[in-house]
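Predict fold of Acyl-CoA dehydrogenase family protein; 391 aa.
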Amino acid sequence: MTAVPPALDLAGLDDLFTADELAIRDSVRELCRRRIDPYVADWFERGEVDDIRGLARELGSLGLLGMHLQGYGCAGTSCVDYGLACLELEASDSGVRSLVSVQGSLAMYAIWRFGSEEHKQHWLPQMAAGEAIGCFGLTEPDHGSDPGSMRTRARRDGADWVLTGRKMWITNGSIADVAVVWAQTDEGIRGFVVPTSADGFSAPLIKHKMSLRASVTSELVLDEVRLPADAMLPEVRGLKGPLSCLSEARYGIVWGSLGAARSSLASALTYSIEREQFGKPIAGFQLTQQKLAEMYLEYSKGLLLAVHLGRRKDAGTVTPEQISLGKLNNIRAALEICRTARTILGANGISLEFPVIRHMNNLESVLTYEGTVEMHTLVIGQALTGLPAFR
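Predicted 3D structure, encoded as tokens:
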């Protein structure tokens, strides 16, 4: 990750945060500087993260896993604290932020919000410490934006449940100890806590990715996986369960995408001052300054929106539509910042010696997951007009 030039607080946005919030931000930034930044370009190039379980334990030791949840070994920080952590993690790499988001905002949140007390006591302390890794099985090979049409099925067999189906594009799947899996039942869509050691469960690694290469992405295969009756999440039925989890994860993206944007902007700014053409730094040319100014404007506006949504979330007043607004705006702005930064670096912009092409490739995935541009556009459209246009 490129160091953050002081000029990137031109708008004075650090004034929006308390001393405690800035201390958390700085502690995450230091962890990233020490533990991730020296190695992440190599991880991305090889498509493999060295000692990912050790990294999870270090993230857990800093309280970053499920950090905005209360009790059960979780840090219980504010949503703004969590947002700042996501920003710093994604300034290192989207894949690392995805590890934390899926662990805390999807798998842990589902258990924390909808699980039995036994589920919580057994899994959450281990997951908060990074001793157990979780994944979240919702998306299927043929059903992404339309999860209500999922084919994964859970049927009763005596006192047990038997799960059959496939899930796709599952972060952490191949290294997970527990999977939260959503399935059709005779009583509607229900969630299940599935130990990955269960007979019939497998998680083949998805290879040949050109994005999120410093992240584990897998398929989940459930072949007559037999679970006890108490494996079902008791406190939710229907799509509101998985969709509420997705809203938690989208909130992290609102902040995290800005980390990738800031890293790319910082890299472009530093490069433009150091790179000379036609006898002077390219930062001294009007077209370069226009690019830098416009990138900074979009980054600043995105951060203002993230802080606003974070304060609303801490106050309990944020709505799913507002989270969609933040996700749609900030990921599109971040991707455009990365693309513009790439042009400033010229040919060097495609080299992994700089973070820009890595962030740009990663954000192509972030643009799609946790809701595509099209779906968030329609969520906002329905909120504005009162008319659903999904079908």
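The CA atoms of residues 335 and 376 lie 16 Å apart.
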